[in-house]
Design brief:
By secondary structure, the protein is an alpha+beta fold. It contains four helices and seven strands, in the order ββαβββαβαβα. The longest helix has 20 residues. It is rod-shaped, with a radius of gyration of 25 Å. 7% of the residues are buried.
């Protein structure tokens, strides 16, 4: 089965399922399709974001893939340009915030409670999303 986003000549869009691409074309060419909104029989496929298969067999669309790419680029930038301080993140963030050490961009690990404490003190912190990534 294949799902298509369809559009009529008046710009209405709707979804429909077909056995295969050829089945859609046969139904369209024989006038068996009609717009779900205005009953126009001038129907064609609308532009859709493609679905991409993941390794586990689930599907992701192009918009999800763009988001994943943006998150990965953010992580790569932080790992490249920031200083890694490991589990000393909360202490280092405080020292930087209160002027006890030089201003610098850092990243590392903190517990939920440590992050809450930092935020309540006015120390700007932001959790870094860490999606599963393949190791080279």
């Amino acid at each position: 089965m294949i799902k298509y986003r369809l559009a009529c000549d008046k710009g209405h869009e709707f979804d429909a399922w077909f056995k295969c691409s050829a089945a859609f074309e046969v139904q369209r060419d024989n006038g068996h399709l009609a717009c779900a909104h205005c009953a126009s029989k001038k129907i064609d496929r609308a532009i859709m974001a493609p679905a991409l298969a993941r390794n586990r067999g689930t599907l992701i669309n192009a918009e999800d893939e763009k988001k994943r790419k943006a998150v990965n680029e953010l992580i790569e930038r932080v790992e490249r340009d920031f200083d890694y301080v490991g589990d000393k993140f909360a202490d280092e963030a405080r020292k930087t915030h209160y002027g006890e050490s030089a201003k610098r961009d850092i990243y590392g690990e903190a517990t939920f409670d440590e992050a809450v404490d930092l935020l309540s003190e006015g120390v700007p912190v932001l959790p870094l999303p860490k999606p599963a990534r393949k190791k080279d």
